Amino acid sequence: MHISEAERNRGETTMRLLIVEDSRRLRETLETGLRRSGYATDSAPDGVAGFTAARTGMYDVIILDLMLPGMEGLEILRRLKQERVDSHILILTARDAVADRVAGLKAGADDYLVKPFAFDEMLARVQALLRRRHGVKNPEIQIGDLRINLAARNVYRNDEPVTLTAREYAILEYLAMRRGHIVTRNEIEERIYDGRVEPASNVIDSAVCSLRKKIDEPNTSSSNSLIQTRRNLGYVLDEVCH
Q1: Less CB within 10 Å around the terminal CB: N or C of the chain?
Q2: What angle in degrees, to the nearest 10, is found between the helix axes of 185-193 and 166-177?
Q3: Residue 222 neighbours by CB under 8 Å, 6+ apart
């Protein structure tokens, strides 16, 4: 399982995913796909390890198989609800009977996806759960003339498409989810870079600088950028007031 004790104890508010799946091939496929989509992802190969990680409450969305060795998915769901863990939970399972879906939802799942499934559908469901968790009902966020389609993962400025790398988009998406609030460098480090940024590195500052150049209009001054730096604190994305 890919999670350190230090990560569990940080307690930072970031967007993280946990995959609890005993099929190594599927688990690694999901982990690779979600990381390429810009999400910080941990995984567990069995129910006991999955429950241990999930109960920390550090995950926004948990992707949970039902038929797991050690502890079944439904038991994990029940225990998480008893401990009031508020992570959103997407069930992945080969059980497609209505009774199985009802049992999962009654136990506390937020959504249900039957195997086999298309990765794009699973990703869309995860994104919907992330929007729900952060109180974003509309899949499109408008900040001035900047438009972000969270479902399609497209960005427009003045209705012109903006081309971003996966990490640039992930940073922008998270800042947009937290519109008007300071997002610390530590949050971005955990959310985008999986906590793997070297101490004293300027990789995050460089990434934000690159993002600014792409979403701001030409010749925009730093004081009028949509992404404002709060010295020694972090970054804020919001409409500029003149």
Answers
A1: C
A2: 130
A3: 229
Q: pLDDT digit string (tens) for 74-130?
A: 999 999 999 999 899 999 888 777 887 788 888 889 999 999 999 999 998 998 898
Domains of the chain: 5-133 (3.40.50.2300), 140-237 (1.10.10.10)
* Nearest alpha carbon to residue 123 among 111, 141, 109: 111
What residues form DSSP beta bridges with 169? Answer: none
SS3 18: strand
Which pairs from 136-139 meet CB under 8 Å and 24+ separation?
136/177
Q: Is 23 exposed, middle or buried (0-12, 13-18, 19+ CB in 10 A)?
A: middle
- pTM here? 0.64
Residue pair 234/185 in contact by the 8 Å Cβ criterion: yes
For residue 73, give both structure tokens: 């998915």
Strand ranges (E), 162-210: 183-184
φ/ψ bin of 200: left (φ > 0), alpha (ψ from -120 to 50), beta (otherwise) = left
Pairing assessment for the beta strands 140-143 and 146-149 based on DSSP bridges: antiparallel
Please give the Cα distance from 5 to 199 (Å, whole number). Answer: 19
